[in-house]
Amino acid sequence: MAVYILHFSGKLYHARHYVGFTDDFKRREKEHMNGHACGSPLVAAAKAAGLTVTVAKVYQDGGRELERKIKRGKNTSKYCPLCRAEKQKEKKKNVSRNHVSPAANPATGQCKEGLEAKRKAAAAERGTVSHERS
Ligand SMILES: [Zn+2]
User: Fold this and answer.
1) Domain residue spans in the chain?
2) How far is the CA of 38 from the centre of ligand 1 (A)?
């Protein structure tokens, strides 16, 4: 028995996933991908709406329990690797957007000012800051 998650490229009736249960995923997948209504009306509708349907995850030895758990969770994207990857990307984007130090040096993790201060401190130790006098 297999439980599987189909991921839609866009929302359909606020749904982005179809969670199914089958004893023969290969046959079922074909039915879905051909857009047969016997596959699932929701998946057929998604295809008719021009959405791309992708097999996101297959639990080859999943059972009814797992199917129920995923459906009950109301958050299928938690189980969907495609959505998780998307979220990760989103997160990374947000981090770089919120980054307040544009002078940061990614190689050392130190900002320019910090390096400059360090250089000055080292120079002061050597007594070579005279050029700063007017
Ligand atoms: Zn998804």
Assistant:
1) 2-79, 101-126
2) 22
- Look at residue 39 and give its three-state secondary structure: coil
- pTM value surpassing 0.85: no
Average pLDDT, the chain: 83
Say how many Å lie between the CA of residue 134 and the centre of ligand 1. Answer: 64
Q: How far is the CA of 113 from the centre of ligand 1 (A)?
A: 43
Question: How many beta carbons lie within 10 A of that of residue 133, not counting itself?
Answer: 5
Residue 21, beta-bridge partner list? 3
Q: Which two tokens stand for residue 59?
A: 């639990």
The pLDDT of residue 122 is 83
88: its two tokens: 């990760």
In the predicted structure, residue 9 carries a pLDDT above the cut 90: yes
d(Cα 129, Cα 121) in Å, to the nearest integer?
9
- Comparing CA positions, the residue from 74, 56, 64 lying closest to residue 4 is 56
